[in-house]
Amino acid sequence: MSNDNTTQGEVVKSVLTAEERAQLTPDDILQEFIEGNKRFRNNSLTPRDRVSQIEAAASGQNPKAIVLSCIDSRVPVEDVFDQGIGDIFVGRIAGNFVNEDLLGSMEFACKAAGAKLIVVMGHQHCGAVKGAIDNVELGNLTTTLSNIKPAIQMSQDYAGDKTSADEGFVKTVAENNVRHSMNLIRENSPILKEMEDNGEIKIVGLYYTLTNGELLFVD
Ligand SMILES: [Zn+2]
C-alpha cells in the first residue's frame, strides 16, 4: 500500500501522480478498491487534507479508474472505495447503464487520460431497476428505464416472483444489468475492447450491498 497514497493513519495531502499510477496494474487498482471498501465498512476511511489536495490536483489529474454507478444517494462512490480527489473518474446515471455518452466518457478516461480499470457498479434496492420492472412511465424517465429492460429479459429464468416486491428478483435484474452494461462496453467500444484484450485495462462488475456496504463481484 506504499504507492497508492492511502497509507492508513497518515493524513494524505498529495494526489496520485503519473509516476505512481504507472506502477499500478489493473489488478493492483482492483485490490486497492477491495481494501478501501474494507476501510469504508470499518469506519476507518483514509484521513485526507482536502484543502491541500485541491491545490495539488489543480494542475492536472492521473485517475486510476472509472466507476459507473447509479445516482442513488446511498452509494457514495468515492467513500465506498476509500478514494479521494484525483483518484477516480465517476460516471453516474439512474440504473448504471451504458449509452454512447457514457462510452465516450469511458474512452476518454481510459484511452486519453490513462485510467486502467472500469468498474460497473449496480446496487441493492435500486429504484431504477424496480421502476423498470414495474414499467414506470414518467416523462424522460420512461426512456431512461428502457435501458434496463434487456436485463429483465436476461432474468426470465428466475424461479420466484418476477416483481419488484421480490428482493431476489430485483437483485438478479440488477446483476444482469451490470452484465449487460459490461457486454455493451465490449460490443460498442472497439477502443475499450482492444485495451482489455491487450491487458491495458480491466473491466469489472460489482454489486454494492446497501445494508452493510459490502461489494460483491458480478461475474
Ligand atoms: Zn439505483
Work out the count of structural domains. Answer: 1
Strand order of the largest sheet: 2-1-3-4-5
Sheet of most strands:
5 strands, mixed
Rg, Cα atoms, Å: 18 Å
Which structural class best describes the helix and strand composition? alpha/beta
- Order of H and E elements: HHHEHEHEHHHHHEE
Q: Say how many strands there are.
A: 5
CATH architecture: 3-Layer(aba) Sandwich
Strand content: 5-15%
- The residue fraction in helices comes out at 40-55%
Q: What small molecules does this complex bind?
A: zinc ion
Report on this model:
- By secondary structure, the protein is α/β, with parallel strands linked by helices.
- It has one domain: 3-Layer(aba) Sandwich (Beta-carbonic Anhydrase, Chain A), CATH 3.40.1050.
- Helix content is 43%, strand content 13%.
- It has ten helices and five strands.
- The chain has helices at residues 18-22, 26-41, 50-57, 77-80, 100-112, 127-133, 141-146, 149-153, 167-188, 190-197; strands at residues 65-69, 88-92, 117-123, 202-208, 215-218.
- Strands 2-1-3-4-5 form a five-stranded mixed sheet, with helices on both faces.
- A hairpin with a 6-residue loop joins β4 (202-208) and β5 (215-218).
- The longest helix has 22 residues, at 167-188.
- It is globular.
- The two termini are 26 Å apart.
- The model has no long low-confidence stretch (mean pLDDT 96).
- The protein binds zinc ion.
- Zinc ion (ZN) binds at residues 70, 72, 123, 126-128.
